Structure formats: C-alpha cells, structure tokens
C-alpha cells in the first residue's frame, strides 16, 4: 500500500526547516490525484516516488506538486526523499528521474548519527534578468533599484527550476518583506518562475535568503534547495566563486523556521550539489 510521509528538510528541529510530503508507492497516481494529495497535505511541495527500474531498488521516477500545480523540481522535497529512502533501506545513492532530468541523491550517516542527503542538480544555466521582468518584480516587492547590491546584478538561475535571483544591498532590506501577493504571482506565472530568490551576501561563505512563492499559494518558502543550487550556479557564472567552493545558505530565519542549506560548487561546469538533513514530522500515515 502507498505510504505518505511528512518530513521537514534542512533542519533537525521540528519547528525549523521546510516541511515536505513524500509519497512512496509502486506506481505514480494520475496527475489530478497527485495534485489532490498535495493540496490535502498542505505543504509547499509533496514529492511522489515510484520505482523507475525493475532491476534496481535505488532508481525512482519523481514528480513534485505544490498545493496549486506541478513544479518541475523541488530541492527540499528531494532532500526529504533521500533521508526517507535511506532510513528505510541503507545510506547510498538514489537516482531520481525528474521532469527536467536525472538527479542523483547521495546519502550518508554522519558521525553524529544523523542522515544527510546530497542532491546533484541537472546542468544549470543562468541568464541576465530582463529589465521589464525586474522592474515589475521590484514594484510588486516594493523594493527600490537603489536598495540592490550593485555587485550582484539580478539574473534568472536554473538548476532544475527557474528562479529570479535578486541581491539586496543590506540585511535590513532583506529582513523587510511585504509584497503584493496576487501581483507578484501574476508576474511569476507569465515569466514561468518557481520562486523569487532574494539574497543578501553576508560573507563569501554565507548567504541569507528569502523566497516568495505565490505561484505555489505560499507567501514565503522557509528553505528552497533548488533556488540555493541556482544561486550556486549564478555565483559561479558571475565569477564570484572559484570551484571547488562551498557556502551555506540560511533561510527561514525571519519567518521563524530556520533552515541550513549546504551548497557545493565542485567544478567549473556541471551540476551544483545541495546537502541537508531532515527530520520526520509524522511516522504514521497511509496514502489513499
């Protein structure tokens, strides 16, 4: 019988991280049923996994649904999947076939006993943000161009899903987030954006982030692994980091759900690696 799990990713604290549903079954339900289940779960995303290869216990087809629509890829739900799968078998590598390509997920149990999952994104790409899109987004956010970091110009980064990356010039600007939900949602739908990744570069090794997610009917996402991967690709593209490099993204702090996302940029090209823990929110529950 299918199993429906609930985990919070990028945390070991039940009150932190980003909750995700993880549905495990022999075959994926129809899309309308996956959307219904995701809406019932009520988290920003639920991942659905079914065996992708009859000869392997570690290969899965993965699809991701918010409460409003299917999304091409979700980092925090993938981390939750990795931890859940390793907890049910043993740590190792799991291969997830997503809508946008193959995503390996490596899992290990560290010395402290906690399981950690590391996803490797599909080949990322980064493009300058179109001026019209940027102007409309800033207006919806009520941010002024003068409040941005001139050293990190806005761009659209993709590492499985597209995110508009906007860097604030100060933490004070990042900390104040109040935006026009419907206006930003309309802009993002037209531009096919998954989130707006608002960042502040605290140091070369620490990024602070906030992610409006109105297209998923969520005001703010407390941990966005796909956006963190896109940011890693963006910083590499800008020449702000030289591989191999690592940095930590702190997200969810301002909304009371602190999350820690570890990002690794291993090479000059290729996928970005994102690591995190996850904690079970519900050890019970059978999917219907």
Question: Could you give a short description of this structure?
Answer:
With 288 residues, the chain is of the alpha+beta class.
Name its key features.
23% helix, Diaminopimelate Epimerase, Chain A, domain 1, 2 domains, 18-stranded mixed sheet, single chain, globular, alpha+beta, 288 residues
Structure description:
The chain is of the alpha+beta class. The chain has two domains: 3-122 and 276-282, Diaminopimelate Epimerase, Chain A, domain 1, CATH 3.10.310.10; 125-268, Diaminopimelate Epimerase, Chain A, domain 1. Helix content is 23%, strand content 38%. The protein has six helices and 18 strands. The protein has helices at residues 31-41, 75-88, 131-141, 171-175, 181-191, 225-238, and strands spanning 3-9, 18-24, 45-51, 59-65, 70-71, 93-98, 101-109, 115-120, 125-128, 155-158, 162-167, 195-203, 206-213, 218-221, 245-251, 259-265, 273-276, 278-282. The protein has an 18-stranded mixed β-sheet that branches. A hairpin with a 4-residue loop joins strand 4 (59-65) and strand 5. Helix 2 (75-88) packs across helix 6 (225-238) and helix 3 packs antiparallel against helix 5. The radius of gyration is 18 Å and the shape is globular. It starts with a strand and ends in a 6-residue tail after the last strand. 48% of the residues are buried. Residues 284-288 have low confidence and may be disordered.
Write the topology of this structure.
Elements: E1 3-9, E2 18-24, H1 31-41, E3 45-51, E4 59-65, E5 70-71, H2 75-88, E6 93-98, E7 101-109, E8 115-120, E9 125-128, H3 131-141, E10 155-158, E11 162-167, H4 171-175, H5 181-191, E12 195-203, E13 206-213, E14 218-221, H6 225-238, E15 245-251, E16 259-265, E17 273-276, E18 278-282
Parallel strand pairs: 2-3, 4-6, 11-12, 13-15
Antiparallel strand pairs: 1-2, 1-18, 3-4, 4-5, 6-7, 7-8, 8-17, 9-10, 10-11, 12-13, 13-14, 15-16, 16-17
Helix pairs in contact: 2-6, 3-5
């Amino acid at each position: 019988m299918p199993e429906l799990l609930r985990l919070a990713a990028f945390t070991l604290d039940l009150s932190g991280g980003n909750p995700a549903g993880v549905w495990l079954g022999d075959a994926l339900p129809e899309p309308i049923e996956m959307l219904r289940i995701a809406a019932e779960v009520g988290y920003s995303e639920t991942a659905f996994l079914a065996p992708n290869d009859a000869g392997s216990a570690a290969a899965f087809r993965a699809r991701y649904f918010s409460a409003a629509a299917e999304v091409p890829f979700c980092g925090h739900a993938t981390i939750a999947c990795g931890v859940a799968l390793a907890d049910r078998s043993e740590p190792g590598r799991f291969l997830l076939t997503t809508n946008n390509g193959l995503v390996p997920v490596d899992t290990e149990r560290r010395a402290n006993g906690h399981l950690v999952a590391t996803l490797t994104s599909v080949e990322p790409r980064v493009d300058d943000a179109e001026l019209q899109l940027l102007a409309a987004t800033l207006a919806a956010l009520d941010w002024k161009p003068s409040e941005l970091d001139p050293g990190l110009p806005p761009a659209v980064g993709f590492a499985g899903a597209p995110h508009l990356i906007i860097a604030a010039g100060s933490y004070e600007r990042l900390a104040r987030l109040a935006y026009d939900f419907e206006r930003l949602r309309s802009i993002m739908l037209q531009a096919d954006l998954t989130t707006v990744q608002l960042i502040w570069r605290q140091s070369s090794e620490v990024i602070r982030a906030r992610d409006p997610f109105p297209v998923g009917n969520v005001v703010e996402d407390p941990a966005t692994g796909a956006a963190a991967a896109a940011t890693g690709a963006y910083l590499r593209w800008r020449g702000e980091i030289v591989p191999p490099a690592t940095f930590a993204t702190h997200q969810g702090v301002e909304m009371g759900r602190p999350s820690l996302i570890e990002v690794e940029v291993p090479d000059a090209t290729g996928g970005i690696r994102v690591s995190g823990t996850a904690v079970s929110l519900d050890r019970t529950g059978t999917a219907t």
